[in-house]
Amino acid sequence: MHHSLQRLALIPLLLLGACSLWPEYEKPAVAIPQAFKQADTVNGWKTGQPGDEQLRTAWWESYHDAQLNSLVTQAINANQNLVLAEANFRRAAAASSVNRSALWPTVTANGSATRAKRSTNAVRIGADPIIETYNLSLNASWEPDIWGRIRKQIESGDALLQASKADIEVSRLSLIASLAQEYFQLRVLDTQLLLLDDTLKALDRSKQVTLNRYRAGVATKTDVNQADALHKNTLVVAAETRLQRAQSEHAIALLLGKAPAELNIAANPFNMQTQLTPPAVPVSLPAALLERRPDISAAERRVAAANAEIGIAKTAYFPSLNLTAGAGYQSNAFSNLISTPSRIWSIGPLIALNVFDGGLRKAQTDAAIAGYDATVAQYRQTVLTAFQEVEDQLAAISLLSEQAGYQQAAIKASSDALQESTNRYKAGTLDYLNVITWQTNTLNNQRNLIAIHGRQLQASVALVRAIGGGWSNQLNAGSALNSTSQPENTSGQHPQTTH
């Protein structure tokens, strides 16, 4: 009895020893800058400090585009990558429940009836070689979590479940941002097509004027050919732009979970007469990205899961204890199966220890440690990537605004040069090649300005994506992205042509 008490007294010491095997989880440290170096380059924007709950805000509504809002709703309801992420979350939730079930005993009910013939040489003479056996039993088995293996499995499963939940937010944020960027690109192409259509009409009139001057003997055949070549080259540009629009529309269909044949988006050009200003996105402090970005949250949770896997691997060095118990009835006649003499029972522990495994447990532990180191590196890389993406988009927004100003000035200069060269050509003091040159330059400058505005909108979407989603404070409502307006003129200044 004394020895039994001593052995029982050793159990708490063993448990304490086992606990030391469990590596305590600590969130990996990362170097966090005090501020974004590009933040000061964006005029009029302020630093915000939003929390994780703002990931679900409908930030895309800040662009005040009803068509975009409708497309986002369709994408959230039907995008297959989002369906995949949600299915993976349900699978992770089921796996978490599986891990928890191991904390409880397993109880099984069994019933059997067998009829067998024994060898007549193996039974006494006169004994019936036919034997019938009936069994009815209830068995229970339970593995006490002495070394914490099951608890570590639960810890790992819960962390992976949280990571899977964050993956849904990653997929949703990526989906909406990709859709918004593709949609704005579609509107850029619509605006350029409207510009090209108006330009082609003007070039057609210019070509006719040149032809009339040739017939009157005041222009050369070369002038006519040059005007015709510019007209045809512009048709080529228009065809290429229509191809790009078709491909952009197909990409949007894929994001909506549809086949390209199922989607037709009506043309909706920007109104270039008004200033296209993307909504101002309040930039979070660098440290807030660790709370806002769902991909960072998912990476950190996978680090926690990998840390728990080390503890699971180390518990393999200790013996496993399985407590079993059973009770029931057994008889060779069904008529007296449920009776006191037919009762059977059993109870007892089963202890198993792996004495030799050829280095299996060490290899598994080493693999778990390496897996943890890999997830830490991935987490830190995700954080660094997040900082880079915010800096990239802040720089893009600042420099694109600068580009737009320069491009506006370039349009003014090329339009003035076009008007002057046209007047001099009519006066017979300038070759028609100069008119062609400035017509081309003016068209290219106008197309570039449209593209820059599109890139500004896409950069603002990319910044929203980089900071982890929406924001709580009310943003500027003055964005001139009214999708219901159909402008008559897309650029304010079209190429001037000779008449």
TrEMBL record:
Keyword Transferase: no
SUPFAM superfamilies assigned: Outer membrane efflux proteins (OEP)
Region of interest (Disordered), residue spans: 478-499
UniProt topology in membrane: Lipid-anchor
Subcellular location: Cell membrane
PROSITE patterns: PROKAR_LIPOPROTEIN
InterPro entries: MdtP/NodT-like, OMP_efflux
Pfam family for this entry, one: OEP
Predominant location: membrane
Keywords noted in UniProt: Lipoprotein, Membrane, Palmitate, Transmembrane, Transmembrane beta strand
Highest taxon, organism lineage: Bacteria
Membership in a protein family: Belongs to the outer membrane factor (OMF) (TC 1.B.17) family.
Record protein name field: Efflux transporter outer membrane subunit
Organism, scientific name: Methylophilus luteus
